[in-house]
Specification:
The chain is an alpha+beta fold. It has 5 domains: about 55 residues, Helix hairpin bin (Helix Hairpins, Orthogonal Bundle), CATH 1.10.287.610; about 230 residues, 2-Layer Sandwich (D-amino Acid Aminotransferase, Chain A, domain 1), CATH 3.30.470; about 100 residues, OB fold (Dihydrolipoamide Acetyltransferase, E2P) (Beta Barrel); about 170 residues, 5' to 3' exonuclease, C-terminal subdomain (DNA polymerase, domain 1, Orthogonal Bundle), CATH 1.10.150.20; about 70 residues, BRCT domain (Rossmann fold, 3-Layer(aba) Sandwich). The chain is built from 26 helices and 24 strands. Helix 3 packs antiparallel against helix 9. The protein is globular, with a radius of gyration of 32 Å. Bound molecules: 2-(butylsulfanyl)adenosine. 2-(butylsulfanyl)adenosine binds next to strand 3 and strand 8.
Length: about 700
């Protein structure tokens, strides 16, 4: 940057060009290529050069105007009162607050011993600025900031945001413009991206981009599917409404009219109050349900705000005080594969450690192979890492370097843009933890280890599931106990459970004689089980209780299930190709067969043929579909379901024309309404019992 070969004039020109490019990507296309912090750095470098060499300043320098362009497609809206931006204090330490307070006091010509200035301190939401225009209390227009003078009319899309009131409570002022930030909560953002991932579609880089995309989405129906949120932080044009004397009272007034105002705000006294707020919110930041990139301080008194006025486009009475950026650039060194508790294989980026979102990050998720390909990241690339809140850090993309043409080094025949070339990384075919085959199911984007019972990564999860109430029902074997047993090395595989005796257990923390005995007894009791329970307990992918029961019923004996071909499995009620393939793959793994053999050797038994015998029990509900709603007086939902299924019926989650009966208990909701609409038979608990006892209709 201080290369003596490059003159300040050349550097300034380069910076302007780069900033223009990135501003267009950011504001117009909503597709940034670099993190904000990187943009800010370039911007500040240009500002510094221009300050040192005023002769280099040009009228079109990005430092000289508020950026943003109109997108074709939305009608322009001229703001009655310009939408300004605020100065940013990039110093993330306490000194940023001190500097602002000192400036305000100087501008107000306050004596050193004058009392502290009162500030309104609030959060700096990371979304998109919106002006909401209310005409006699009714929302008539919503506009983006645009270039500050003219924005875009996005009324249709904003109307779909449930949190924004269409009518103000108790306000019929001729004109009241409310300004604030449209944003996406982190959980809504994660869900949205999860859905995109499941569909194999492009994910959004961060909540802010997703929110901006939704607001400027030309199809309001699509905008409506994005769960946007809103917080007000100020006013625009006002006619016929008595504006309170302070900013904090203004926000209180807006809140009482039904406008969302964030409660994480305060009135702070002097620099010390600001520093305290900055610190307190910094500590809260990760726990907040939405992203913030800093806090905002505003002189609370509107009269003082007026005295302070503006410098070009920024008020002297407000400042944004940042926190460490939640996105940073670093280098991707390696890609490792991590096996989750459920057997899912996740590519994890090993990064050159970087300080992001307040901590040092050296691992970040790449989610799955398809997303990795779509993002086009390769080992050695500079990449953007995001860490916000408690969410696992992720690589959101690579930094685009236009000097490298990726198409050149891809060999002929390289697949098109849906699966770009990732030449220096290969997804493993065997689980890196246990060596079992890796399977990716049709229509799924996740690769999974098939070593279920054998794989160390899945051990705890497998044991917990095995011991659970509806599986082997081992009393005294919960979360903490399983952690202890596995971490101490006492249990490596499921059969190890049945070798445990009081002596071994005695050494464990918080394991008194009583609980040791209870666990040993629980294990002993679980040895006597049923085939459906045992099959379910093995934890095969896609084999839930119902499928386990169907398998037991159909084949009657475990060995027949284990040896059934996919075609034979397909003959089982409700078993489709994905389930059949999963069962076959599971029993094809020698480890899994060995675990089954060891469990049987440990004394686990069931009445062989019992499952098949069940088929000959009366099936009064064969072919019937029932829906349960509300709570029944004497039957839990699980119990009712079990009874219905034992009688050959099915339990569905929603009411349709195909529903045979609806069983309604107390506080039955919309399902009951729907049943009545469709004219279905509605039963109470005695009605259900009568049906269960009845002989089959045919
Ligand atoms: S006040 C004249 N308060 O930050 C002051 N802005 O450059 C106008 N922002 O794009 C802004 N949280 O959308 C204000 N609590 C807050 C804010 C906030 C986020 C955004 C705003 C604007 C940018 C300011």
């Amino acid at each position: 940057m201080n290369d003596p070969e490059i003159s300040p004039a050349e550097r300034a020109a380069t910076l302007r060009q780069r900033l223009q490019h990135h501003a267009h990507r950011y504001y117009v296309l909503d597709a940034p290529e670099i993190p904000d912090a990187e943009y800010d750095r370039l911007f500040q470098e240009l500002q510094a050069i221009e300050a040192a060499h005023p002769e280099l300043l040009t009228a079109d320098s990005p430092t000289q105007r508020v950026l943003g362009q109109l997108l074709p497609g939305f009608a322009p809206v001229r703001h009655a009162v310009a939408m300004l931006s605020i100065r940013t204090e990039t110093d993330t330490e306490a000194s940023g607050a001190l500097a602002f307070d000192a400036r305000v006091r100087r501008e107000l010509e306050l004596a050193e011993d004058a009392p502290p200035v009162e500030y309104a301190a609030e959060l700096k939401f990371d979304g998109l600025a919106i002006n909401l225009r209310y005409d006699r209390g009714v929302l008539v227009q919503a506009a983006t900031r645009g270039d500050g003078e003219t924005g875009e009319d996005v009324t249709q899309n904003i109307r779909t945001v449930n949190k924004i009131p269409l009518r103000l409570i108790g306000c019929d002022a001729p004109v009241l413009e409310v300004r604030g930030e449209v944003y996406l909560r982190r959980d809504d953002f994660e869900r949205m991206n999860e859905r995109q991932r499941e569909r194999g579609e492009k994910t959004f880089v961060n909540p802010r981009n997703a929110a901006a995309g939704a607001v400027r989405q030309l199809d309001p129906a699509i905008a409506a599917q994005r769960p946007l949120s809103f917080f007000a932080y100020g006013l625009g044009e006002v006619q016929g409404w008595p504006v309170p004397a302070t900013h904090s009272a203004t926000l209180d007034a807006l809140a009482s009219m039904g406008v969302p105002v964030c409660t994480d705000r305060t009135v702070a006294l002097g620099a010390a109050g600001l520093v305290q707020f900055h610190r307190a919110m910094g500590a809260e930041r990760d726990a907040l349900p939405f992203d913030i990139d800093g806090v905002v301080y505003k002189v609370n008194s509107l009269a003082l705000q007026q005295r302070l006025g503006f410098v070009t486009r920024e008020p002297r009475w407000a400042v944004a005080h940042k926190y460490p950026a939640q996105e940073q650039v670093t280098r991707l060194e390696r890609i490792e594969i991590q096996v989750g508790r459920t057997g899912k294989l996740t590519p994890v980026a090993k990064l050159v450690p970087v300080f992001v979102g307040g901590t040092t990050v050296s691992n970040a998720t790449l989610h799955n192979l398809f997303e990795l390909r779509r993002k086009g990241v390769r080992i050695g690339d500079p990449v953007i890492v995001r860490r916000a809140g408690d969410v696992i850090p992720e690589v959101v993309g690579r930094v685009v370097d236009r000097t490298v043409d990726r198409t050149v080094d891809a060999p002929a025949g390289t697949p098109g843009p849906r699966s770009p070339y990732v030449p220096n990384f290969r997804f493993p075919r065997a689980c890196p933890v246990c060596g079992s085959a890796v399977l990716r199911e049709k229509a799924s984007i996740a690769h999974c280890c098939t070593g279920g019972l054998f794989c160390a990564a899945q051990r705890k999860q497998a044991i917990l599931h095995f011991a659970s109430r509806r599986a082997m029902d081992v009393e005294g074997l919960g979360d903490k106990r399983v952690d202890q047993l596995v971490d101490s090395g006492l249990v490596r595989t499921l059969p190890d459970l049945y070798t445990l005796g009081p002596d071994q257990l005695a050494g464990l923390d918080r394991m008194g004689d009583k609980s040791a005995d209870k666990l040993v007894e629980g294990l002993a009791r679980s040895r006597q089980t049923t085939l459906p329970r045992f099959l379910y307990a093995l934890g095969l992918r896609h084999v839930g209780e119902a499928t386990a029961r169907d398998l037991a019923r159909h084949f009657g004996m475990l060995d027949r299930v284990m040896d059934a071909s996919e075609a034979q499995l397909l003959a089982v009620n409700d078993v489709g190709p994905v389930v059949a393939h999963s069962i076959r793959t599971f029993f094809d793994q020698p480890h899994n067969r060995e675990v089954v053999a060891q469990l049987r050797a440990a004394g686990i038994t069931w009445p062989e043929g019992e499952g098949a015998a069940a088929a000959h029990q009366p099936q009064p509900l064969a072919g019937k579909t029932l829906v349960l709603t509300g709570s029944l007086p004497h039957l839990s939902r699980d119990a009712a379901k079990a009874l219905i299924e034992a009688a050959g019926g099915k339990v569905a989650g929603s009411v349709s024309k195909k529903t045979s009966f609806v069983v309604a208990g107390e506080e039955a909701g919309s399902k009951l309404d729907r049943a009545r609409e469709l004219g279905l038979t509605v039963l109470d608990e005695p009605g259900l019992r009568a049906l269960l006892a009845a002989p089959a209709a045919d």
